[in-house]
Amino acid sequence: QWGNIGLTNINFKNCRNLTGIIPKSDLAELPGCEYCFNGTGITGLEEGFCFSGGTNWRFLFAGCSKLTSIPDSFKIVDGVIQINNMFQSCTSLETLPENFSIPFGIKAAASMFHKCTSLKELPDTCILPNDLSGGLTYFFAECTNLKTLPDGFTIPDGVTSLAYMFRSCGIESL
Fold first, then answer.
1. 124 to each of 69, 102, 111, 119, 128, how far by Cα in Å?
2. What's the first-to-final CA gap in the chain, in angstroms?
3. Residue 26's pLDDT is what?
4. What's the CA gap between 120 and 61, in Å, rounded?
5. More confident site: 168 or 174
6. d(C-alpha 163, C-alpha 114), whole Å
7. How many CB atoms lie within 10 A of CB 85?
8. Neighbours of 121 (CB within 10 A)
């Protein structure tokens, strides 16, 4: 257990020997998680694991090439504003939880699923909130196994750039 030692952020970036399933712990209570598991060898998270706060979740799981799934308990909490590159290069990630969604208040989401080459589908709850602003560059780029988007998937009016959003992806129809 991590205990209450006053930490505000922690990351294990590029700790490739950190493998297996990350257990539910008070580590999830930390307010900062930017780059937390970036480039590690984790394969999953224990059911019940979910970060409780922070505003910046950029690169949270980026480069976790062995991560295959995310538990149903995982969600992006209210107050988070940056999710850029959150799952970028999670090349083994096949599915997201059935209830996975992107909440209102997100300002930056570029490259969120960039190079998630095993991602096959998105749950119907995975739609972009109407108040999303900023760019969606490379959002689904190189998601070669993603064939369709959820029903009701639209691009919000406040989005400023769609450059390369679908570059080299497997989407067959819009």
1. 17, 11, 20, 14, 11
2. 46
3. 60
4. 18
5. 168
6. 12
7. 25
8. 15
**Torsion angle (degrees, nearest 10) of CA 76, 11, 8, 2:** 100
Give CA–CA dist 1/28, Å, rounded.
11
Buried b / exposed e along 38-69 (16+ C-beta atoms within 10 A): bbbbbbbbeeebbbeebebbbbbbbbbbbbee
Q: What is the pLDDT of residues 10-59, one digit of tens each?
A: 788 888 888 888 777 666 666 668 888 999 999 998 888 877 777 889 99
Nearest 5 degrees, angle CA 9-CA 112-CA 166? 170
Token pair for residue 102? 């992107």
Tokens for 45, please give them: 């998270």
Tokens of 81: 């504003």
